[in-house]
Design goal:
It is built from 13 helices and 22 strands. It has 407 residues and is of the alpha/beta class. It has a seven-stranded mixed beta sheet. Strands 17, 18, 19, 20, 21 and 22 form a six-stranded parallel beta sheet that branches. A hairpin with a 3-residue loop joins strand 4 and strand 5. The longest helix is centred in the C-terminal third of the chain and has 22 residues. It is elongated, with a radius of gyration of 25 Å. It binds MU-OXO-diiron (FEO). MU-OXO-diiron (FEO) binds next to helix 2.
């Protein structure tokens, strides 16, 4: 679909973003059933500026929009609040037409761009409170790191009272209309976006919100989804609420172990139950959670991972491999958060039993503290195996308690 729309956000700020109705997944793992938008803005000031570029694949459409608002060679500044390629993907293309433009970003942003852009460019590193005079308008920069990369910041256009926040307060939601009061309810999309992109960085979100509270905001110009001219306060409040709820619930329990598994015929499930009994025998103070993750929403798996302080992963071996839900679980393990958690593997197999070894190696690579010698069981765990599984669980539970007590 050709996207020719340009919108007046204020008389001097134009939305020149791209609507991507067709995207199926974002960042490979994030389902985008409502599509997304790559919001880019043009500021028609004494010195012309662009805020955020767009994904590289939309160059022709974006260029058409730029040419309709300005001669590209007259663009003097390109401000990147965040350099993930959905926002920086067309920077190099633009710089080829605007070789005199200065790229403005945080120190991290400019460092990342050195490896993303293959041509020399002028740059301006900005930090908290720095301003940029556009002639008749002023930009002020607000440091807001880790939302959702270390490079992120917000840009405040003082005269128009517009706050540009890139990923923060955004959503993967694409409709014909772009203003929040004209689109259908998209709360599920907003929440899903928050959960996947921003929630892990909740403490940074709270710091950023504290900084923007004193601003007399007229409008928040996000990097994805609707432009917030009516409901920005509600979405900022919701982001604060979700961040606080997450931080309150995400402190790992002292003695919480998660047995996450998939099971084709119930054998690996039975193994999980026997191991769980053994763990409880080791110490009945241990909270044991078992979870069949085959169809569990990724957000729920992530919550379980966040709250546990020890992890067992179970999988049958199929075609000498483990299974897709287990690989998705691996993708949710965050070594910054989960490093050092005690971990082990188990699973049923028919002919060979590679899954436990694959799981064990992956958990090691993800910096967990692996109890080696994952438990493999040929087909179902028959009588003799049940005692061994309980012993395996008991051993895991004792090691977990010893680790918790610093023994
Ligand atoms: Fe929309 Fe983190 O990029």
């Amino acid at each position: 679909m050709t996207d020719s729309k340009i919108l007046d956000v204020t008389p001097d700020v134009k939305w020149i973003g791209i609507r991507d109705y067709d995207i199926v997944t974002f960042d490979i793992v994030m389902e985008t059933k409502y599509g997304t938008t790559y919001n880019s803005y043009f500021i028609n000031a004494g010195k012309k500026a662009v805020i955020e570029t767009t994904k590289a694949t939309f160059w022709d459409t974006w260029l058409d929009k730029i040419e309709r608002v300005a001669d590209p060679s007259e663009i003097e500044y390109v401000i990147l609040n965040h350099t993930e390629p959905d926002h920086s993907g067309n920077l190099e293309n633009l710089l080829r037409l605007a070789p005199g433009a200065t790229v403005v970003g945080s120190g991290n942003a400019l460092r990342y761009l050195e490896d993303m852009v293959s041509i020399p460019f002028k740059s301006m590193k900005v930090k908290e409170g720095d301003t940029l005079d556009l002639g008749n308008k002023t930009l002020r920069f607000i440091s807001a790191p880790n939302l959702h990369w270390p490079d992120t910041m917000y840009t405040w256009l003082e005269e128009d009272r517009v706050l540009f926040t890139c990923d923060s307060f955004g959503a993967h939601f694409c409709t014909e209309e772009m203003f929040d009061d004209l689109v259908p309810d998209y709360h599920d999309s907003f929440k899903y976006y928050f959960d996947v992109i921003l929630k892990p960085y909740s403490k940074f979100m709270l710091k950023a919100i504290e900084k923007i509270r004193p601003l007399d905001i007229s409008l928040i110009a996000t990097g994805h989804g609707p432009i917030l001219r009516s409901n920005w306060k509600k979405l900022v409040d919701l982001s604060e609420q979700y961040s606080r709820e997450y931080l309150a619930s995400s402190q790992p329990e002292d003695k919480n172990v998660l047995l996450a598994y998939v099971s084709a015929y119930g054998y690996t499930k039975q193994m999980a139950e026997h191991i769980a009994e053994g763990i409880r025998e080791a110490d009945n103070a241990i909270i044991v959670e078992t979870a069949d993750i085959e169809t569990m929403p990724l957000g729920d798996v992530d919550s379980l991972l966040t709250r546990c302080n020890a992890l067992l992963v179970g999988s049958p071996t199929i075609n000498q491999n483990t299974l897709l839900p287990v690989y998705k679980l691996f993708a949710l393990i965050n070594p910054l958060r989960d490093k050092g958690k005690l971990a082990a593997s188990f699973g049923s197999y028919g002919w060979s039993g590679e899954a436990t070894g694959i799981i064990e190696e992956t958990l090691k690579n993800l910096k967990l503290n692996v109890m080696e010698g994952g438990f493999s069981s040929k087909f179902y765990p028959h009588a003799g195996k049940i005692d061994e599984l309980r012993e395996f669980g008991k051993k895991f539970g004792k090691r977990m308690m010893a680790t918790a007590e610093g023994v």
